[in-house]
Fold each of these.
Amino acid sequence: MKELNIKERLAICKECPIYTNDRCNAKLWINPNTDEISTYARTGFIRGCNCIISVKARNLNNHCIAGKW
Ligand code: SF4
């Protein structure tokens, strides 16, 4: 996958269904294949990391838990 810059990463997060108030919402789970969300742990779903996105996206060593960047 092409390495995305900070602006591109932020744009992806802002469109993500588990993005909430600058956080990757740890009260939600996302299916990376379908973008479906869940409020509880389910097979094939990944829990939000609770990271502050404006901070996480700035470090190019960090990656989206759902493989979006
Ligand atoms: S890090 Fe990934 S899963 Fe979390 S809000 Fe951003 S795009 Fe969504």
Amino acid sequence: MTALVAVVSCTTEKKAPVNPFFAEWQTPFGVPPFDQINDGDYIPAVDSAIALAKTEIASITASAEAPTFANTISSYDRGGQLLNKVASVFYAQAGANTNDSLKAIEMELAPKMSAFGDEVLLNAELFRRIKTVYDNRAGEQLNEEQLFLLENLYKSFVRNGANLNTEDQEKLKKLNLEISVLAVKFNQNVLSETNDFKLIIDNEADLAGLPESVITNAAEMAKADSLEGRWVFTTQKPSMIPFLQYADNRDLRKKLYDAYLNRGNNHNQYDNNQVLADLVRLRADRAKLLGYKTHAAINLENRMAKTPENVFNLLNGLFSRSQKVALRERDEMQKIVDSEGGKFKLEPHDWWYYAEKLRKAKYDLDENELRPYFSLDNVRDGVFAVANKLYGITFTRIENIPLPHPDAQAFEVKEADGSHLGVLYMDFFPRESKSQGAWCGGYREHRILDGKEITPIVTIVGNFTPPAPDAPALLSMDDVTTLFHEFGHGLQSLFAANTYSTTYPAQDIVELPSQIMEHWATDPEVLKMYARHYKTGEVIPDELVEKIKNSSYFNTGFDNVEIMAASLLDMAYYSLEAPVNIDVQKFEKETMKKLGLMPEIEPRYRSTYFLHIIDGYDAGYYVYTWAAVLDNDAFEAFREKGIFDQATASSFRKNILEKMGIMDAEQQYKNFRGREPQIEPLLKNRGLN
Ligand SMILES: [Zn+2]
């Protein structure tokens, strides 16, 4: 191993300038030296890293010693560190700061990474050693984490084809490779389609109904596009949603919403219909080859849900409850349309506009009244304060540290006793180089290496409402809960207590740490802590807090219907048995028809831009709902004892946040709650009971 490292450093000495991935990073806390990394560094770094990782595997399989946990599992876990180092920076940058050259590299890396992954997972000698350790596991004195790692590692090799014959393994490699390339293509197409459409307004009358701040933002967008004097709206949510909520011009609302809905479905070079059809077909073929009925069956095996049937039961039950509520919401809105003399039936692009009117009429609440209390800095400091009250941790801004993008901010996170816990980056605003949505990622994950603790470097990326020239970024309620959500993922990474870097979190518990944080975001006690007027510093008035509380069931039918519809669409694709041959538009339409989805609501994501179901949440969009059962039930534990109860917080940290991926998820939950999760709190909190 020492010799190998020497080879790598030799190569770098010849090169000038040095590829930063081959050096120890001399930065504060060892964060990536973003300012020194050039696009051209990635491919050579990945190539060397893969070569190194291969030799690491070879040294395990060449061992003459009988396989043990130490010489096989631990060594396997130690390998690939350089590859992790390069990949974590590359994929974070490709998601948040991409450009044409990174897009090309991403495309070039997909087959390389896929081929390397298969080379490891289909390495017969490596699998033989892992299986031997697994079969002999009772004979070694393994602790709980080691046993969990071993069992899951063994099963993941089996699930990924280790037991197939050579001919089938070759077929599998080919399928994996095709899938990996298509997944990148799908992602890049969505970004291009999102950036391509602009609703340009040059007639001021078409802005009627829009709040001043929304108009100012649209004028800024136009300026940035050299369209001075006009107004630009995009399909990015911070731009689109206010337009849908407030613009009186119904035709333009339709135009913008249709553009959003048809991303990837415009019969151009970025069309995703065939890409998705191929992905679904290949994944079904892959499942069959591996001896499973469907792709969903593979993905669910290792999760809390266990089978597609369990997922369908949960989703279908919630869908019918939700649609009953949504139909009532629709009828209430139709009444407004009729009373205003509108001679039309409510359509999907009308929903936000009339929902806002309904909110005003029913709860006397205008979402725009809230924004001044939700300046980004206040919300960010609010979530820090919540974490401090729960876990005692503190956040200190770091000024002189490399940033992944000039807009990003960095914080040092410390335990109550002042010891270092990790680094947290936050990068808030939309830009064309950034993917849609919000996420939490990392540049370095927690582990223990040679007795030394490696601390995490976490990043939260969002597309929140940007600042205007005369005002700070004033967030929507949705932005606020999203920020709390992603921060919850961040906390989990910061508190991770794993020894080994190979962890196996059941995906349907992963959204528990994030979604539970949303409950604090809107709690009256917490609102009083952070929601202050950005101009006057005045704490949010009781009357507004009361209105937020009263309107907690506002639009709940719609929210749940669109999520259930999207979750069921995902499950429908991946419940298809090979051979699959579908027309995506037809399949989506038929699936929604079979479900009985009301025509006034579209699934939360339509097929050709449903990024979740491409990589990571394929047969997995349901996990948000699965985890919602958990987070509502778990938050009840806080409600019972007080939302800042120290014993409950400490148990949540110890049993849930620290143990993610290193012990059985059901057991984790039971250890925290003292019993199995119950669905009633979710039904109650969403007004579906
Ligand atoms: Zn999440």
